[in-house]
Amino acid sequence: MIVLESGIGNYVYSNGKKYSYFGGNNYLGLASHPALKAAVIRAVEKYGVNFSASRCTTGTASVHIELEKQLSFFKGKQDTVVFASGYMGNSILLEILKDSYSAVLADQFAHASIISGIPGNVNTLYYKHCDADHLEYLLGQHKILDPLIITDGVFALTGEIAPLDKIYPVVKRYNGILVVDDAHSTGILGKTGRGTPEHFSLPEDGNVYQTETMSKALGGYGGFISGNRKLIGMIRERSSVYMASTALPPPVVAAGIASLKIISENPGMHLQLLAKAGKLREEVAALGFQTTHHNTPIIPILVHSFEKARSLSIFLEENGIIVPFINYPSAQEMNMVRITVTVCHTEDQTVELLGSLKKWIKKNGQD
C-alpha cells in the first residue's frame, strides 16, 4: 500500500522518496491548487472545522448556499443539493424516485455505489456491459413498465464511456428514466465539462438524471445532484440519507467554490487534459499493451494475471513511478494497472513512464 507523505500532484512523496504520480483521480490537478488551499484556510479561520449538524437543522451556512448556486450555474440547472460523499448520490436519488419506476436495469459492471443504492425490494436486472441491444432485449423480454436504467458515465477502472447515444433512445422507447453516475465525467466530458449527457449532446430531458461528485476532477470532496427545483426540494425534504447526514464541513465547501471559479476562468482545461490523455493512450497501445480506446484520463493496462499486474506496478514504483494495480471492489474480473493522466503531467514524465514500460516489455515480454 502506498502511504503518502505529501499532497497529490504530478509528483508525490512516499517513504521519504519522490515519485512521479500517475494514480488517483485528480484529473484537473485542483486537489493541491494554491487557490483551493487559500480558500480552505480562510474558511477554517471564519467557520472552524465542522458545523456539527445536519442541513435540515442548524447545519446550513451561507457557504453551502453559495456552493449550490455555483454548481447549478456550472451544470445549467435550476438548483443543486450537496451531501457528504458522491457514493451516497445513487442511494439518495433512487430513494426519491422510487414511486416513478417499477424495475431497475443496471450495467453489469456498474459501480458499487449503484449496486448498493438500489432499494432491496426492487426488481433488478443487469444488462451486458455497455450493450444497448441487450438492454432493449431485457426490457422487451420482461415486459417491464416504468423502468429505471442506471449506468456509470465513465467507468472508473477502464475509462470506458457508456454509450448513452445508444442507451438513451432505448430508454425513450420504453418511457423510462435514465440515471448516469457521472463521478468520473463531471468536469471532463462535454463541451463545458457537464458530463456524459453533454458529451453525447442528449436533449434536455426531465427523465435524465446525473449523480456527481466533487472529489475527482473538481479536486475537493462531497457529492451533489443538480436538477429542477422540484427534484432538489424533494431530496431536501424527503431523503432520509440526506436529512440524517452531517452537513459538509466549511473547508470542503470553500474548496468546491474555489475549484468552480478556476474551471470557469479556464474553460479549456478539460480539453487540454483529453488531448494529453489521448496521446499517451496511443503510445501505450503502440508498445503492445492491451488497453481501452475511449478518450478519457483513465488508461488501464490489462494483463492476464493478478500477479503480473502487481509485478508491473512494483516495477514502475522501483523506477520512481506510481501506477497502482487494481485491488478494488468490482464485478469486473480484470487484472490491470490503472494510469491516470492529469493536466499537471509534463512531457518528461510521460517519456519516463513510456521508457519504463518499454523496459518492462523487454524483461517480461508482451502479455
Give a written overview of the molecule.
The strands form three sheets. The protein has a seven-stranded mixed β-sheet with strand order 3-9-8-7-6-4-5, sandwiched between helices. A three-stranded mixed β-sheet has the order 1-2-11. By secondary structure, it is of the alpha/beta class. Helix 5 runs parallel beside helix 6 (about 165-175). The protein has two domains: about 10-20 and about 270-365, Aspartate Aminotransferase, domain 1 (Alpha-Beta Complex), CATH 3.90.1150; about 35-265, Type I PLP-dependent aspartate aminotransferase-like (Major domain) (Aspartate Aminotransferase, domain 2, 3-Layer(aba) Sandwich). The protein starts with 10 loop residues before the first strand and ends with a helix. Helix content is about 40%, strand content about 15%. Strand 7 (about 175-180), helix 7 and strand 8 (about 210-215) form a beta-alpha-beta unit. The chain has helices spanning about 35-45, 60-75, 90-95, 110-115, 130-140, 165-175, 195-200, 230-240, 240-245, 250-265, 270-285, 305-320, 345-365; strands at about 10-15, 15-20, 80-85, 105, 125, 145-150, 175-180, 210-215, 225, 300-305, 320, 335-340.
